[in-house]
Amino acid sequence: MWEDKETTAPDPSVAPDGEQPSALARTDSIATFEETNKQFGKMRIFSMPELMDTHFPSRPCIIENLLPAGTYLLAGAPKIGKSFLVLQMAYQVSAGEPFLGFPSRQGTVLYLALEDTYERLQKRLAQMTERDSPDLVLSVLADTLEEDLLEQLENFLFEYPETVLVIIDTLQRIRGRMPDNGSYAADYDTIAKLKAFSDQRGIALLLVHHTRKEGAEDVFDTISGTNGILGAADGALVLHKDKRTSGDAILDVVGRDQPQMRLRLRFDPTHSLWQVTEVETEPFREPPNPLLEFLSRLVNEENPLGSEKISRLLHDFALPSIIAMLVGALYNIVDQFFIGRSVGMYGNAATNVALPLTTVCTALGLLFGVGGASNFNLKLGAGKREEAAKYIGNAITLLVGSGVVLAGFVLVFLKPLMIAFGATDIVLKYALIFAGINCLGFPFLILGTGGSTLVRADGSPKYSMICMLTGAFINLILNPLFVFVMDWGIAGSASATVIGQVVSGLMVAGYLRKFKTLPLSKNDLLPNWERSRLISALGAASCFNQFAIMVVQITLNNTLTHYGADSIYGSEIPLACSGIITKVNMIYFSIIIGLSQGMQPIVSFNYGAKKYGRVIEAYRLTLLIGTVVSIIAFACFQLFPRQIIGFFGEGSEAYYQFAEEYFRIYLFFTFLDCIQPISSNFFTSIGKATKGIILSLTRQIIFLLPLIVILPLFYGINGVMYAGMTADFAAAVLAAYLGWREVQLMRSWMKADK
Predict the structure, then answer these.
(1) How far is CA 661 from CA 470, 667, 673, in A?
(2) Distance CA 234, CA 255 (A)
(3) How far is 515 from 306, CA to CA, in rounded Å?
(4) Domains present along the chain, CATH in parentheses
(5) CA angle 627, 638, 546 (to 5 degrees)
(6) pLDDT digits over 76-123, tens only?
(7) Whole-prediction pTM
(8) CA distances, 9 to each of 27, 46, 51, 100 (Å)
(9) Tell me, what DSSP letter sits at residue 256?
């Protein structure tokens, strides 16, 4: 019977004249209530069929899951940090930035800081941000409710129709003289007047209030005044601490139109900002639709991620990732092989000096590729196809633009860059040739790297892999032709690499012109600051890890050059050997990282489905396979270092001696090296990004970088080798411990569910 008709109910946020603020306006056709329902004075009635057939427009959400339209309280003890929190909210909503990790609806914000001064507000905002927000309006004076406050707010909304949020700090300042102070009725009447105003105008009204000193079992019972205050409001947020001097606090949230949540916060005194450390409850969800629930269950039951054998899933998902990673490593290995065979040790050293530039290309490709793909999938999942297309277009523009800018920068500053990266006088001339030619391919390399991610997001992982394999195959064919047949030496190897990158990049570009999921227009390619910012935000983690590798590589090169000069090996031998060993190690890590990427969708899906047994099994199996690969790599590095280094050209006995020591000492803990990258990806996969980022930085930045600087001061060139093995061990132990704790936690959840 509910399918017969549908009526749109009047929107409670519509103003008396029938208009809404443009920021909250909707296109719903509002039917006249009197025409569809019976009235008995103020009482308006629905029969159940009429109620079920009526469409009620949803309340606009100012901060997703945290602050819908309506009237809300933010309560806390004096001097606990409430004013900092609401000023942060005011700024971030006005700027369209997430507040405490929750997306906000950008619009004008009025902040009535009635217990502050303009000087204090200026100082706090200067600490918080360097970017002005013209949509944040502040005042330290306002009338009370008994006077003309509502009229003042009405006039403000007329002048600023895009207003979405009004913050009043504090409630007590606008109450004035209460004739029946402390009564339930008086409290309820005060909030009811403000609620009527916010409902009528479709905005959020946040009232800052105090809590009582007396403790209560329910934190919301500590709100100062009678229950009438909370009873009339749409919801409340209570900020409290275990200790007043602590920088940590808890924000409890309850309301009619948002979920009950507990946020653990930490105050950053340097920037005067509150940051979320943990969200203890799940985000609010709309009441379930029976049909959608049924379809969801059907999909989940049939989804192989939730039912297929873990070993089979890991094979299917990890193998393409491993191949893709190996292709990237193959570029460097091919160049190293032919340069070593033709130019020799100095050529090998030159490729090592130029390696940070390739790392920068990878970082930029991941920054805009991963960020673009993530935003594309998010918008597509939300049904916003036009916005999704614009994110892909912006990502393409950023990929190509950054490649052109980087190539130009390197060409202008090539020589000082090579010297800064550790080139000696002998190695410099080779490095200038190799890097000078290589940089011509940077726009295509960055487009190929990042564009492949966009292609995979479009549902074409095989084509993405073909693009990369084609470029690598061309490089493999042309390298011996240019190096040996045409006798171009190191310039020939660089040229072969560039041609391979150009072909891969053009293949990706050809695909992006005919994007499968949705068509792209020229307008989609136009750069947009806000979309570029969001792309960069989601791609930052992958990018930062590559930059960390680059910093370590540059530091390592300079350390080897400096301390090598004081050793029996000289500067060039350590530089050449390190470059070869780094690229050989890339082959091993390509397999490990490919494994961890293959694990990611399996772990994410089953963690979301609360199938913790399958999550643990996937993590355990990935670690087991990774350990087997690591032991094999360890055996090769310990038993055959001379043979491996000899594969890349001849050298002196000192050359072989240093290579053997470097392999055996620097990479001594290779058999443990799989734990850190797999565990890092594991935490990212289950939504604990902070732990994932920390683990991703442990080996390169937290442990290795300072050890590379410190240990050579005491042990000379050997200190570099000790730094590598120490960093590997420390990173593995920390990752193993955190992974073990997380597994134990999931096992406790499994026991609790039984």
Answers:
(1) 37, 10, 19
(2) 6
(3) 30
(4) 7-55 (no CATH), 61-279 (3.40.50.300), 308-319+565-754 (no CATH), 343-538 (no CATH)
(5) 60
(6) 888 888 889 999 999 999 988 888 888 888 889 999 998 888 888 888
(7) 0.55
(8) 13, 11, 9, 34
(9) S
